[in-house]
Structures are given as structure tokens and as C-alpha cells.
Design brief:
It is built from 14 helices and five strands. By secondary structure, the chain is α/β, with parallel strands linked by helices.
């Protein structure tokens, strides 16, 4: 009995394993506890292992890879069609084992420890930004019940809070003033935490050659560049820049049939964090282009044909393809670069 492919349904404590031989016949169905995983896979011959890209997947991919196994991660939505009848751990493991052998399956790059550490800092920073925004909106909403209106923006809240607390004629009771002081202090603390994590990300960016290379692209700064490098791993795993843009969710959804192509808007598919950063960077470039870009530039021509939102996504898509070219082909960014086909008039 030689196991060639194994599918693992990951969990917190109990893992379901399904293995097949070279003919596709099931030869292994087994439950493993967390403490048994390393010993079990260390004692079997190297084989292909498939897992869904979920919590702890990258950890187990690295761990099992140390034993000589080839580990591939797949998005859960690509595995779901292979689940037969009812959904359970046994059926999920069997579906994963079958899906990993499909020739056209798309796989998720396995991240190393450093990449996951940097992405953890990104996620923590993002959490502080969201919590800070929520806290600011709460302060604004509470004060509106007392007839005090604060304009949008965190800066406006930080500026107005001291004035409101010092104003003895605005009708705020002592209880509300003490609460406002507490909320304002919490807002300042979250702002401090966000700035410290931002500095940590920029320090990593300055030490990473690939991240510095990407920051040369207009519309991509240290935050976006570091997130791209940490998320992608080996850009060569993507066949083209178009495939990478699709992986990030920067392409329109399709509803085509009968030879007629119908393109819809972009969805929340892909990595929403990276796509959001790229689109925000593209919006800043659009604001710049409105005032200073040449009228015959690619972006100005696009803005003349489409609205700003469409132009922002198109520019983010273009920047993603440039990112792939720089990383996959080990090139430096050149603002005046012209493709060979365009230069030849093709």
C-alpha cells in the first residue's frame, strides 16, 4: 500500500485524513489528534498533501513540508464542488484529496514565518484603525444627542473634544463629561498603537529589497508594498499579471453565455485587504492626475471615458500587473518603460 495523495480536513484538535494510492483507491481514512499529526506524517513516505487555506493551514504546510511532503493549499470555495452528499469531516477530507489532484486547480502560496509575522502586524494595525473609526463614530453619535455636532474625520474629533469639555455652557452633565474624557483617552491610545505598528511596518519595508522596489510604483506606498510582498511569497507561482490581479479580486465578475460576454462590477472575491490598499492608492493618483498629469496620459484618457471609481479599479489592476512583472522577472520599475509590441507598432 503506497499512499500518493492525502487530503486533510483541518480543525483545532481532531483532524480527518483521507489517503489514496496511485489508482485513486482509498487506502486511508483516519482521525488524528493534534499531538499525533507530526509523528504520523513523519513516519510515512513523502506524498502530495492537500488542505484548505484556513486557520493554521500555513503552519501545517510548513510543518509537513519539513518531512519531505509536497503540500498545496486551496481556497475552500474551490473544494466545495467535490463534496459528495452531506457535509462532514470524512466527506470534506475526501473532497480535498480529490480536488488537489485536479490539473486546473488553483493553489494558495504557502507563507513562511516572516511573511505571516508581517501580515499579523498589518492585521493588528487594520484592527486598530477600524476600532478607532468606530470609537470616533460613537463619540460623534453620543454628542449629537446633546445637540453637539462634530464634522466627519478623526482629526475633527481630536480637535473639538477639548473645546467641548472646557465649554461650561453647552449643557453637558458631569456624567457625560467624565464619559467623554474616558472615550477620548481610549481614542488617543488606539491612535498611538496604530502609529507604532505603522512605524514597525515601515521599518520592515526599509529593510526589504522587494518591498522597496514596489514602492517606486506610483500609487503604492510602504504599507501596500510590504503587504503585497508578505502576502504573495513567490510571484512566479502566478502565470501572469492578469492571474495575479484576478487573485486579488481586481477583475469584473462575468455572466456570459452563448458567446455573448457580459461583464459586471468587481466583487469581494480575493484578498479584500490588498485590493482595498491598491484602490486607495489609485484614488490618490487620480486626484493627482486631475491637476498635474498630461492630458494625453493613459490615466487622463481613461478618466475621460469612465468615471473615477472604474478608473481607480483599472489603475489598481494595472499596478498589480506591474508588481507581478517586477517580482516575477526581477526587474526595476521604469516610468518610461514601453512594451516591445507597442514600440514596434504592433
Amino acid at each position: 500500500m503506497k499512499i500518493t495523495t492525502i487530503g486533510i480536513d483541518l480543525a483545532k484538535e481532531v483532524f480527518q485524513v483521507h489517503g489514496v494510492d496511485g489508482r485513486g483507491k482509498a487506502v486511508l481514512r483516519k482521525q488524528l489528534k493534534r499531538k499525533e499529526m507530526a509523528k504520523f506524517f513523519a513516519n510515512i513516505e513523502p506524498c502530495l498533501i492537500g488542505m484548505e487555506a484556513c486557520g493554521s493551514a500555513h503552519h501545517w504546510a510548513r510543518k509537513l513540508g519539513e518531512y519531505g511532503h509536497t503540500v498545496k493549499l486551496m481556497a475552500p470555495q474551490f473544494v466545495k464542488p467535490y463534496v459528495k452528499t452531506n457535509k462532514n469531516d470524512v466527506a470534506d477530507a475526501e473532497a480535498i484529496c480529490e480536488a488537489v489532484n485536479r490539473p486546473n486547480m488553483r493553489f494558495v502560496p504557502v507563507k513562511n514565518v516572516e511573511q505571516q509575522a508581517v501580515l499579523s502586524v498589518h492585521r493588528a494595525r487594520q484592527g486598530f484603525v477600524k476600532a478607532r473609526t468606530a470609537q470616533g463614530n460613537q463619540i460623534r453619535g453620543l454628542l449629537s444627542e446633546f445637540g453637539i455636532v462634530i464634522p466627519k474625520g478623526i482629526e475633527a474629533i481630536a480637535k473639538r473634544i477639548p473645546e467641548i469639555l472646557e465649554d461650561g455652557e453647552n449643557g453637558l452633565p458631569g456624567t457625560m463629561r467624565r464619559l467623554l474624557e474616558r472615550l477620548a483617552d481610549n481614542l488617543k491610545e488606539m491612535d498611538r498603537q496604530e502609529k507604532e505598528l505603522d512605524a514597525q511596518i515601515r521599518a520592515w519595508h526599509n529593510e526589504n529589497e522587494a518591498s522597496r522596489k514596489l514602492a517606486e510604483i506610483p500609487g503604492i506606498g510602504p504599507i501596500t508594498a510590504s503587504a503585497l510582498v508578505a502576502s504573495m511569497g513567490d510571484a512566479g507561482e502566478f502565470k501572469s499579471g492578469r492571474q495575479m490581479a484576478a487573485w486579488l479580486g481586481l477583475v469584473p465578475r462575468q455572466s456570459s453565455t452563448g458567446g455573448k460576454q457580459t461583464l459586471l462590477g468587481i466583487s469581494k472575491r480575493g484578498d479584500t485587504y490588498l485590493s482595498t490598499l491598491l484602490i486607495h492608492g489609485a484614488r490618490s493618483m487620480i486626484r493627482f492626475a486631475e491637476k498635474k498629469a498630461e492630458p494625453d496620459s493613459w490615466l487622463r484618457k481613461l478618466m475621460a471615458r469612465r468615471n473615477k471609481n472604474v478608473a481607480a479599479v483599472a489603475l489598481a489592476n494595472k499596478n498589480t500587473r506591474i508588481v507581478w512583472a517586477l517580482l516575477a522577472k526581477d526587474r526595476m520599475f521604469r516610468p518610461d518603460y514601453t512594451p516591445v509590441a507597442v514600440a514596434a507598432g504592433v
